[in-house]
Amino acid sequence: MKLKNMIATGASLIALVAGGMAQAQSMDEIIAAAKAEGMLTTIALPHDWCGYGAIIASFKAKYPEITVNELNPDAGSADELEAIRANKDNTGPQAPDVIDVGLAFGPQAQAEGLTQPYKVSTWDEIPADVKDADGHWYGAYYGVMAFGVNKDLIETTPTTWEDLLKADYAASFALTGDPRASNQAILAILSAGMSRGAEPGADSGTKGLEFMAELNAAGNFVPVSGKAGTIAQGQTPIVAAWDYNLLAWRDSLAGNPEIEVVIPEGPVLAGVYVQAISAYAPHPNAAKLWMEHLFSDEGQNGYVAGYCHTARFNSMVAAGAVPQELLDALPPAEAYTRAIFPSVDQQAANKTVVTEGWDAKVGAVVAE
Amino acid sequence: MIRSPRFWSWVAFGGGLLYFFIPLIGMFEFSLRARRGEYSFQAYTNVLSDPQFHQTFVYSAIMALFTIVFGVLIVTPTAFWVRLKLPRLRPIVEFITLLPLVIPPIVIVFGYIRLYNTSSWLPLTGSAFGTDILLMFGYATLALPYMYRAIDTGLRSIDVGTLTEAAQSLGAGWFTIITRLILPNVLVAVLSGAFLTFAIVIGEYVFAALLNRPAFGPYMVWMGGNKAYEPAALAVLAFAITWACMALIQLATRFSKHTRAQR
Amino acid sequence: MTDATITDAATRPPATNPVQRLSLTWFGVVPFLIFAFLFLILPTLNIVIGAFRTPDGSVTLANIRGLFVPEIINPFWLSMKISLLTAFLGCLIGLAMAAAVTKGGLPSWIRDAMLTFSGVASNFAGVPLAFAFIATLGRLGLVTVVLKEVFGINLAGLGFNLISFLGLTLTYLYFQIPLMILIITPALDGLKREWREAAEMLGATGSQYWRMVAMPVLWPSLLGTFALLFANAFGAVATAMALTGSSLSIIPIILFAQIRGDVLQDPHLGYAVAFGMIVITGIANLVYIVLRARAERWLK
């Protein structure tokens, strides 16, 4: 009897330990270890992207012993993976601890062994289709693809992707980055493909590239990385970007010039961004603490303040954890109800077609 | 005097004047547009009160100072020795100093990243301090042609042989000769090289961007994409700084001419 | 004879030990040589060698062959065209302006002012220059707006775009021309007044003087500066990046994007691209050296 009990207790103990492997440290242990590490290196987190400026500030305020070292805010998702690869043996400040990449880049990073698993304490509230079951990557926020238009230069705002091909928009449209590296640019092309009737996936990649080739041939495409500055200075009067970015840029320009944000008619594309901890992170505990911060109520509301919808949005709204004024400031819900969330596989297929086909099919060459 | 060459001179000069001044005026005018509908210095206020501006500018200024000191320490003895004792080495040394003008800087920094990362025998990128040192060496490489040319010209204008001879007959050793005799006499040349190096380092982008250091160049590029009117204000400030450096060079040269005449 | 022995004795270091003498002789240049080797020559060699290696270390030409695809050859070609054009125009216009201030009979204060300004402008290259041109010739730039509102000319409608071949050339010339002025002015100063007077006495016209006397003397400097301007434009990346981000298809930006994000999906292609750049700038300088030797032979 006693032996049986002992075996049973032992077995349940083992099960408990094995089950809690991904959550072996308690919150206090993580905090203590993170403070001992003293630094967190982030990459590709512009301050006006989903309110990251305020989120980083609140992290610094909570843990003043941890210095936040921010690398290259304009990096694209591919640049982030390359930064991990290039700094595998490097424990210096160029090696990122955490990355924030598009959904399609999460599995790629995992496959290359660039990530380490971690499940935040609010793990269960994150929808299953935007996270890796083992905890290598997990979705944090999303938005929908929209156009931002400089009203000083463009009289008639385009309302669909096809509109962009019109002669009125000569040398006016730009993506937000290099379509071989930036998730935002790759998904803009997916959205263009969807507007032509393609299913998300390889088909949308192909049709999207066809669209971009036509746009380039018509002389309407500008090979500049579109952002707040370039929209206002006139090089990229129309930019396709996430609605939260466009709204933040509109706010920062404060009417000088006036920016109109319009979600194109037709299929609405929603893009999820996932967080991951680098497998070679020099400060793994600081990284874990950062993740806890991002997925806490405070962090998630920080995203909402930046016009983003969050992974835990539904459960937090149901629990009344989101302040009303933040909810009111969000973009109208209508577009979100018909938003399409491509799956990980669809995004990966689209990404392959775009990154490999861009140079050959479109390859924005300087006009002669 | 034939009249037509003079006429064409004015035409050439006038055309050049237009081409060079219109962008400067355009840049200044654009920087005044921060407030809608009126001209104001709002963009300048925003830039000058931005903590990032202070941090990156101070970082680049300090890097420039270290680069100048290192450059002078490396180049002066070399130029001195080549002129005095090793004239056969002159073509080799001059070839080396012209290499940074032939090899694109982006290739050089690519070499640094591949050669001095943490898995190499000299893991300079393993720490912030090590990367700063690597960056300084990179800047010194970029400034090398100008530093060497400036100091060599300076040495040419003083009679190195006689001075050294005189100092040695008074019992001075090599170290004293270089530090207390040569350096003060080529100070003007060193200063021109120094100001030029300062201008180069402040505006440099590729090295700092690829080595991920918080320098002024990457800050300016970042501003260019993210802010509307502040980049033009930054450009005006950068132009003013470059102008100040060149003016200081002129001043130093004129000052030396004065002391020469008095002798 | 006595002078030589005195100088000889004087420049001999105080110590008479031959070993000490040898080490002291080299002492001055060794730090420089070490620095140049470690931070200039070795990184370049590393790239050159890397262009011929596979990930596992064996020798291969595959990387070089990988260069000959349109998406890499076109940027190379484009960079070369821009560099050749801006070097050529820079030389021409720079020569014209330098000649105007040195020989053209303009007041002397203009010469000083132009030289100072050239010093500033040649260093104004890079990021601030791009901003200045965006602010002037961009869609909302001063010149564009003035042309539209005062003269009724729509620059964008005419097809002008700052991010075009013409736009980039205009921008690059801003630092190419001053560089030419700075370098050619001393050479122009070297053209003695007596030569011109002698030529006029023998009945030569102005253009004959330039063609037969001045140009042959100036050839080496002109060629040298042309090669310099070519290399300068070929490697320029900051200006173009500030104008466009990393999407413009000139070769330095391709290399930059490759180093940052491996956009070509092949790490060793980066080495090959860098090697290609070194080859082109190296050839340019080689051409200069050969032509200069020929020109100097003619002079003798």
Describe the structure in brief.
Chain B is mainly alpha-helical and 263 residues long.
Task: Give a structural overview.
The complex is a heterotrimer of chains A (368), B (263) and C (300). With 368 residues, chain A is of the alpha/beta class. Chain A is built from 15 helices and eleven strands. In chain A, the strands form two sheets. In chain A, strands 3, 4, 5, 6, 7, 8, 9, 10 and 11 form a nine-stranded mixed β-sheet that branches. Chain A has a two-stranded parallel ribbon with strand order 1-2. In chain A, helix 3 links the parallel strand 1 and strand 2 (67-71). The longest helix of chain A is centred in the first third of the chain and has 18 residues, at 2-19. Chain A is globular. By secondary structure, chain B is mainly α. Chain B has helices at residues 3-31, 42-48, 51-84, 90-102, 105-115, 128-157, 160-169, 174-185, 187-203, 206-210, 216-226, 230-262. In chain B, helix 9 (187-203) packs antiparallel against helix 12 (230-262). Chain B is globular. Chain B starts with a helix and ends with a helix. With 300 residues, chain C is mainly α. Chain C is built from 14 helices and no strands. Chain C has helices at 2-11, 18-27, 30-50, 62-65, 70-102, 108-123, 127-137, 142-150, 165-189, 193-201, 206-235, 238-244, 251-261, 267-299. The chains are: A alpha/beta (368), B mainly alpha (263), C mainly alpha (300). Chains in contact: A-B, A-C, B-C.
What are the SSEs and their pairings?
The complex is a heterotrimer of chains A (368), B (263) and C (300).
Chain A: H1 2-19, H2 27-37, E1 39-43, H3 52-62, E2 67-71, H4 77-86, E3 98-102, H5 105-111, E4 115-116, E5 138-150, E6 173-174, H6 183-195, H7 202-217, H8 228-233, E7 238-242, H9 243-253, E8 259-262, E9 268-278, H10 284-295, H11 297-305, E10 309-310, H12 313-318, H13 324-329, H14 333-337, E11 339-340, H15 344-361
Parallel strand pairs in A: 1-2, 6-7, 9-11
Antiparallel strand pairs in A: 3-9, 4-9, 5-7, 5-8, 5-9, 5-10
Helix pairs in contact in A: 2-10, 3-11, 6-7, 6-15, 7-15, 10-11
Chain B: H1 3-31, H2 42-48, H3 51-84, H4 90-102, H5 105-115, H6 128-157, H7 160-169, H8 174-185, H9 187-203, H10 206-210, H11 216-226, H12 230-262
Helix pairs in contact in B: 1-12, 2-12, 3-6, 3-9, 4-6, 6-9, 7-8, 9-12, 11-12
Chain C: H1 2-11, H2 18-27, H3 30-50, H4 62-65, H5 70-102, H6 108-123, H7 127-137, H8 142-150, H9 165-189, H10 193-201, H11 206-235, H12 238-244, H13 251-261, H14 267-299
Helix pairs in contact in C: 3-14, 5-9, 5-11, 6-9, 7-12, 9-11, 11-14, 13-14
